[in-house]
Amino acid sequence: MFVARQKNALRLAAVDARAQGQGLAPGMALADARVRAPGLIAVEADGEADRHWLELLARSCIRFSPLVMPHPPDAIAVDIAGVAHLFGGEAALADAVAEQMEARGMTVRVACAATAGAALALARYAPLPVADEAKAIRALPVTALGLDDEATLGLLRAGLKNVGAVAARPRAALAIRFGIGAVRALEVLLGEAQSPAIPLPHRAPLRFERRFAEPVAHERAVAAAFAELLEAAGRTLEERGLGGRRFRLLLDRSDGAKRRLEIETGAPTRDPALVLRLFDERIAALSDPLDPGFGYDRLRLHIPLAEPLAASQPALDGAEKAKGRLTELVDRLGTRLGPGSIRRLVPNDSHIPEQAQLALPAIDCRAPVRWPAPHAGEPPLRPLFLFDPPQPVEAVAEVPDGPPHRFRWKGKLHEVRLYEGPERIATEWWRKRGGEQDGRGGLTRDYYRIEDARGRRYWIFRHGLYGEKTQPKWYLHGLFA
């Protein structure tokens, strides 16, 4: 479940069905929730991520209607006027929307009404399905009006517990006592007034096409036409303040055959020359060369992935130019060898040594992440070279849980002259404690930085405490330079 800080206290922001079955509900203090469910897992809510996810879900609903309006934090309104018949009616359209949301792992409640405000209120507060819309709206609790806490509490204290009871009162009296906002919310919910709505903006897809009056088979003519498409795409991208990251070229031959080429860049770009060079690399890497046959009669350029690209001020030391050359080299090698062939090490927020870095495709690493810098004058806490998996060693150590005095690795005995530690690292609390698994199971590790009699330094650890395992094993995890 998710928690958020409200008035200097942590309260539940969202709970799952299992938590609801234990009596937990949004708004409950986290301390009270832990009393009822000691084993609950609480994660801090991320409102910005929730809004971003809601917008992505809303954009996926554009296939049902051109007018889609997200209503944070948990609702989406879809105007189905004039489009329901395309899906077999309102019920079939509602089922299609629910099926799409459930395919994305979402729990969904779908309601249809004459207005967006009524549909949102029914979806949030009414038992579904609704047989009589007008009756169901009047039976809604006053919280469905969406007023602030003070106005809602005033309505409840006045004995007005549902929308029907509020609607039965004179509007002038409601305005005087609870404000004009209460009257406005009531009229919108009853469909007597319109509520302004701002649908998601639509932009034409980034698709560009060039048709030929007669099939073109000459390579230079095709390249010139493609360059014209890239110039047109660059102008459109510049108008929108975007740069393309994925470019798709489709070539339609006169005999009906089709070829598709696709490249991806590590940074957004609208430079036609750069994109053209990457496509040349892509074509050169093809095992089956492009055969124009009797010629191409149409070229199409699609840009399915674009990101914001603003003007940048080059630095005086030329660092920006060097970074651009590195990005271009990564793009060229990735295009020639495959997007997953070129990888970059990035830091990962994990206290487990072998998980503290990730080798990700370089084309997916948008901006280099700064590695944690060691303290000045201090020796490195981690060796640069780690064994994968850690190598087992035979060690003689003090009992219980003492440092090693000597260890045997690859048949050679090493006498420990100096040591520093232990650095105790426990497994993640959400993982089940396991066995050895080459020193990577779910047991506690005690790491020591040691130096042998010859001055060579090692990073060695005991896998498991004596309280966890009767005979813990030792492993060599890395070598210091």
How would you summarize what this structure contains?
By secondary structure, this protein is α+β, with helices and mostly antiparallel strands. It is built from 13 helices and 17 strands. The protein has helices spanning 17-21, 30-36, 47-60, 90-103, 116-125, 133-138, 149-157, 163-167, 171-178, 180-189, 219-240, 272-284, 319-337, and strands at residues 2-6, 9-14, 43-44, 68-71, 75-78, 207-216, 242-253, 258-269, 296-308, 343-347, 357-361, 385-397, 404-409, 412-425, 445-452, 457-463, 473-479.
Q: Secondary-structure blueprint of this entry?
A:
Blueprint: E1 2-6, E2 9-14, H1 17-21, H2 30-36, E3 43-44, H3 47-60, E4 68-71, E5 75-78, H4 90-103, H5 116-125, H6 133-138, H7 149-157, H8 163-167, H9 171-178, H10 180-189, E6 207-216, H11 219-240, E7 242-253, E8 258-269, H12 272-284, E9 296-308, H13 319-337, E10 343-347, E11 357-361, E12 385-397, E13 404-409, E14 412-425, E15 445-452, E16 457-463, E17 473-479
Parallel strand pairs: 1-3
Antiparallel strand pairs: 1-2, 4-5, 6-9, 7-8, 7-9, 10-11, 12-13, 12-17, 13-14, 14-15, 15-16, 16-17
